[in-house]
Each structure stands twice: as structure tokens, then as C-alpha cells.
Amino acid sequence: MREFIDAALGFPTFLFTAALIVVIGFWLLVLAGVAETDSFDPDVDLDAAGIGGVPVTVAFSLLTALAWFGSLAASVTLHRFGAFDASGLVRAALTLTVLAGATLLAWWATRLLVRPLHTLFPDEPGPSRLDFVGLTCTIRTGRVDAWFGQAEVAARDGSTAVVQVRQHRADMAKADAPALGNGSTGLLYAYDEAGEFFWVAPYDTALDPRASAA
Q1: Helix, strand, or coil here: 25?
Q2: Is residue 71 within 8 Å of 96, Cβ to Cβ?
Q3: Which of 66, 35, 62, 41 has its CA nearest to residue 53?
Q4: pLDDT exceeds cutoff 90 at 42
């Protein structure tokens, strides 16, 4: 155990040990909800290094852990064979070789590991509720008022969702406004993030310029 501790705290493994401590601390913050896994994605592009397609934090964590393990294993092995007992010049050459070798092997292994992880981190962000703003919907409840209502809306990719909708009292008070009920068509024109619902207004399909053109 002592030789592992000495190797972990000795050069060059100490460089990876320090980086590994930072990585562990970051993932503890993620588990605590203080940080996000994609916190550094806008600032760093790893595609040129061949390890893109996953969050920067995931790639860096894999690279650091693999480099630390490779450097530790190489250092312990060289210590056991007495290689580090050589003269200063030879020892310096060996330590630099371990540093470069561990880094290159970790980079190569990280490239292999991130490939199957691409599917877990799609390039395109998932659908957002704000994407529904401006779309028409079909009311699925008997009424829609300022406190109650649901509607079915079709996203631009063809998927459908049932969302909560509300109608302003002012719109309900208009004498010529058609009532929103089961099966009627509405227009989602705004999203209330606090209440997690959409504001909806009656929609006359006859007024849709696209319908007229058709």
C-alpha cells in the first residue's frame, strides 16, 4: 500500500492525482445539484481531439481517470524494478516517458469509450415546451377557463402531447368569442413558466392563410 501512495503522490502521477481530485469534487457537486454535467460545453470543443460527442466533463473525467491509472501502474512497476533509482538524467527521461505515455494511452482509450456514449448525449436538444407556442391545439376537456383546461398539441416533428391550457377572463368575456370546449381548436400564444401552462385563445381555421391557400 505504501508504494501505491508514494507513486500517487510522486511525479508524474501527482499531476493526474490532483486533476482526479478536482474531477471527483465536480461530480460530488453534480450529485448535490449545484453543477450541471454540460457546464463547460459552450466553452470547449473536443471534436478536434476526437473525444467529442459527450459533455466535456464526461470526456475529461474519463481521460483523467485513465491517465491517472496508467501513470500509477507504470510508476509502481518501474519502482519495483528499480528504474527510478538511476541517475538524474535517466530518471527524468523515464518520468517524462510515463507522463507522455499515460496521457496518450488515456486519450486513445477515451476515444474508444466515448463512441458508444454518443447515443446517450444527442447533439440536438430535446423538445421544449416553448416550441409549442404559436401552434394550434385541440381542446380535450369540456371547458377551458382561467383555472382549468387541457389540450392536445402536435409538435413540428410529428409527436403529440397533452398540455395544460388556460384562457384569459377578458377573452372569455367577449360576446363574439367562440367557446373553447372538447374538440374545438385553440391557439397557444404564450407559456406561463410559473404555472406551467399555456395561454390559449379560440382559433378559427377559416382565418388561417395556409388553409385559404390550400
Answers
A1: helix
A2: no
A3: 41
A4: no
